[in-house]
Amino acid sequence: MNRLREKVCIITGAAVGIGQACARRLAQEGAAVALFDLLDSQGEALAAELLQAGCASRYWHVDVAREIDVSGAIDAVAAAFGRVDVLVNNAGIAGANKPTHELTEEEWDRVQAVNVKGVFFCTKHAIPHMRRARAGSIINLSSIYGLVGAADVPPYHASKGAVRLMSKTDALLYASDNIRVNSVHPGYIRTPMVEHHLRDSGATDLDRALTELGRLHPLGHIGDVDDIAWGVVYLASDEARFVTGAELVIDGGYTAR
Ligand code: NAD
């Protein structure tokens, strides 16, 4: 119940999916949660739900690809809650699913803008607050596709590889400030992103498509959002105080082969 007591956590892409679950579990463990997203009604509803449950929570409309949005919101979080202890860089998009030779520059750039530059902007503007406190935990959502390849969505896989190494670089840069930086590598998790991806790939029976996707994982099924959220809670907490530059793989064995 109190693994994150008095910690202030920012979660990007918090309105649905993995980010929403992270917000719920971090709040359940006693954190104050700042929710960043573009989906205002879902974001506001989640903040209201958490407030109702007695957790400190507030929603900000933030496009992580816009530095002005990010810097203003992170400073506003520090002003509202007094500090920034944890940043969960979760916002991400799948982007165009075309082979490399058919992609446009714009399609490539859009994915990098959200998935890579978004992580850079949020990290850049959270670091000064964490340095002042001489403590912090930054958790970057990479993917199994930051570790291994697959024959689809090339800009997405490139972005997740980048996030993996950005995490290690920042882990080394800020270790002396007692700021830990780690990446999380989920296998397939049932979220709006995966449902859209399956529909875009022509799936008509969603449950069947999800079952088939599950067979790619040695444990035989895809994951649940909470499978990732509990990993994020661990990395956010002082239980992980000696963990930095690490890759937390939560993938039902997908990358073990
Ligand atoms: P999702 O699409 O279900 O939710 C993503 C959230 O990010 C949404 O609320 C969306 O509005 C928000 N978002 C998108 N662009 C944004 C922007 N520019 N600024 C602010 N918010 C923005 O995705 P998800 O499946 O929950 O994935 C969350 C993270 O986990 C992503 O980084 C994704 O790449 C990663 N991931 C997901 C899976 C999976 O199977 N679902 C697997 C590996 C990694």
Q: Structural class, from secondary structure content?
A: alpha/beta
N-to-C SSE series? EHEHEHEHEHEHHHE
Low-pLDDT windows of residues: none
Overall 3D shape:
globular
Small-molecule binders here are: nicotinamide-adenine-dinucleotide
Kindly state the percentage of residues in helix.
Answer: 40-55%
Instruction: Work out the radius of gyration.
Output: 17 Å
Distance between the termini: 36 Å
Query: What is the number of E strands?
Result: 7
The major β-sheet equals: 7 strands, parallel
Strand arrangement, largest sheet?
Answer: 3-2-1-4-5-6-7
Provide mean pLDDT, rounded: 98
Q: What percent strand?
A: 5-15%
Number of helices: 8
Provide key terms for this protein:
257 residues; alpha/beta; single chain; seven-stranded parallel beta sheet; binds nicotinamide-adenine-dinucleotide
Detailed description of the structure:
- The protein is α/β, with parallel strands linked by helices.
- It has 8 helices and 7 strands.
- The chain has helices at residues 17-28, 40-52, 67-81, 105-133, 154-174, 192-200, 206-214, 225-236; strands at 8-12, 32-37, 57-61, 86-89, 136-141, 179-186, 247-250.
- It has a 7-stranded parallel sheet with strand order 3-2-1-4-5-6-7, sandwiched between helices.
- Strand 5 (136-141), helix 5 and strand 6 (179-186) form a beta-alpha-beta unit.
- Helix 3 runs parallel beside helix 4 (105-133) and helix 4 runs parallel beside helix 5 (154-174).
- The structure holds nicotinamide-adenine-dinucleotide.
- Residues 12-13, 15-19, 36-39, 62-65, 90-93, 114, 118, 141, 143, 186, 188-189, 191-194 line the site of nicotinamide-adenine-dinucleotide.
- Nicotinamide-adenine-dinucleotide binds at residues 12-13, 15-19, 36-39, 62-65, 90-93, 114, 118, 141, 143, 186, 188-189, 191-194.
